[in-house]
Design a protein that fits this description.
globular, alpha/beta, Rossmann fold, 12% strand, three-stranded mixed β-sheet, 364 residues, 32% helix, six-stranded mixed β-sheet
Length: 364
C-alpha cells in the first residue's frame, strides 16, 4: 500500500514538472513581461541624480580607474600599452519592476552591473583602453515592450549616453583607433549615437569596428542611418558586427514583437526587414562547428572552455547555438534566449576579431 502511494506521488510530481515546462514554453514570454515590465508610468517614477562624466564617479570604466573591465581569465593578459580606445555602453542591470529607470546607488544592481561589465567589456582589453559610462539605463522590463513609457525610459537613458560620449570624445588620444561596442539595451543606444554623433564626421574614419550585440538591428531600416556597413570579412574596418544568441528550440517571437513595433533609425518600419546576424565563429551564413570556438567564458568558474558551442545564422536573423550549453542557466530567458550570454559564449573569438580589425587600421 505504501509503495503504491509512493508511486502515485512520484507520478503526480512528474506530471506537475511536465505541465510547468509546457506552460513555460507556451507562456514564458508573457510571464516574463508580467514579472519585469513596470506597471506605473515613467513620468511618475523615481530617477537617480544625473552622473557627472567629468568626474571618475560618472564612469564604470575609464583609463584612470582600476575597473573590472581590465580583468582577464586565466592564461589571458590585458594589453600593457593598448593602441585603441573603446567606448562601451552596457545594458541594463536592473531587473525590478517598481521603476522604469535603473537606480545608480543600489548594491545588488551595482554588483550585477559589475559582473556584466567584467564578462563583456573585458573582451576588448587586449587592444584597447575601455571607457564605459555609468548611466540611468531603462529597466530590463522596458526592453520587453514597445509601450510609450518604455520608449520614454529609453530616451531618458540615451540623453545620459550622449553626454558621456561627448566627454569621451574630448579625451581621445590623437590618432588612436576607436572601437564602439555595447550589449543589449546599450546596443540600441549605441545605434542612435552612431547616427547622431559619428556618421559623416571625421571620427567615423577612426572607427575600427562597431559591436552592437544583443539587440536586433535592421539591415534595411537601421544600418543606412549609422553610416557603417555590415562586417563581411575578418579584416574589414569601419563596419557593424551584431547578433543575438538562441538555443534550440528557439522561439524568438518576443524579440520579434518588440523589434517590429519599435522605431527605426531611418523612419522606415522594422517589420519585414532582415535582422543583422554576424557569426562570431566565422563570417557567412553557413554553420560553424564548435571546433571553431576558441573559448566560451563559463559564468560560474570564470574560465575559458574551448570547442563547446557552435553557431549558425538562421533565416530569422537569430544566431542559433544548437542545444543549450550547460552551466549557463541563471539569465536564460524564455524561448531559448541566451542573449544575456552573447559575449560569454564567444568571448575568445570576439577578442580575436577586434584585435584583427584594430591591427588593420592604418597608422595615424
Amino acid at each position: 500500500m505504501l509503495a503504491r502511494r509512493f508511486l502515485w506521488i512520484i507520478a503526480i510530481l512528474i506530471l506537475l514538472v511536465i505541465g510547468a515546462a509546457v506552460i513555460y514554453r507556451l507562456f514564458g514570454d508573457a510571464l516574463l513581461r508580467a514579472a519585469e515590465v513596470p506597471a506605473g508610468s515613467f513620468a511618475a517614477g523615481p530617477v537617480s541624480a544625473p552622473p557627472n562624466y567629468r568626474q571618475l564617479s560618472g564612469w564604470l570604466a575609464q583609463p584612470r580607474l582600476n575597473s573590472v573591465a581590465r580583468w582577464t581569465p586565466p592564461g589571458i593578459k590585458a594589453a600593457p600599452e593598448p593602441r585603441a580606445v573603446v567606448f562601451f555602453v552596457p545594458g541594463s542591470a536592473y531587473f525590478g519592476n517598481d521603476r522604469w529607470t535603473m537606480p545608480l546607488a543600489d548594491a545588488a544592481t551595482d554588483a550585477r552591473a559589475a559582473a556584466f561589465l567584467k564578462a563583456q567589456a573585458s573582451v576588448f582589453n587586449g587592444v584597447a583602453e575601455i571607457w564605459a559610462p555609468r548611466y540611468r539605463a531603462a529597466s530590463f522590463g522596458a526592453t520587453l515592450t514597445a509601450s510609450a513609457d518604455a520608449q520614454a525610459a529609453l530616451d531618458f537613458a540615451y540623453a545620459d549616453v550622449l553626454r558621456a560620449f561627448d566627454v569621451f570624445v574630448t579625451q581621445l588620444p590623437t590618432g588612436a583607433p576607436v572601437v564602439l561596442a555595447a550589449h543589449g539595451q546599450g546596443s540600441r543606444q549605441l545605434l542612435r549615437l552612431l547616427k547622431d554623433r559619428v556618421a559623416a564626421t571625421p571620427l567615423q574614419q577612426r572607427v575600427a569596428a562597431v559591436y552592437v550585440i544583443g539587440w536586433p538591428v535592421s539591415v534595411q531600416a537601421d544600418l543606412p542611418a549609422t553610416g557603417f556597413p555590415a562586417c563581411t570579412s575578418p579584416a574589414q574596418t569601419g563596419c557593424v558586427f551584431g547578433y543575438l544568441s538562441f538555443a534550440d528550440p528557439a522561439e524568438p517571437r518576443a524579440v520579434q514583437m518588440v523589434f517590429d513595433a519599435s522605431p527605426s533609425l531611418t523612419g522606415a518600419p522594422h517589420r519585414g526587414t532582415a535582422i543583422l546576424c554576424t557569426n562570431p565563429l566565422g563570417l557567412g551564413s553557413g554553420a560553424r562547428p564548435a571546433q571553431r570556438n576558441l573559448g566560451s567564458l563559463v559564468p560560474d568558474t570564470q574560465t575559458l572552455v574551448a570547442h563547446g558551442v557552435g553557431a549558425q545564422c538562421s533565416q530569422n536573423g537569430m544566431l542559433a547555438i544548437g542545444s543549450a550549453p550547460a552551466r549557463f542557466g541563471q539569465y536564460v530567458m524564455p524561448g531559448g534566449n541566451f542573449s544575456l550570454y552573447d559575449y560569454h559564449l564567444f568571448w575568445a573569438n570576439l577578442r580575436a576579431d577586434v584585435a584583427t580589425r584594430v591591427a588593420a587600421m592604418p597608422a595615424r
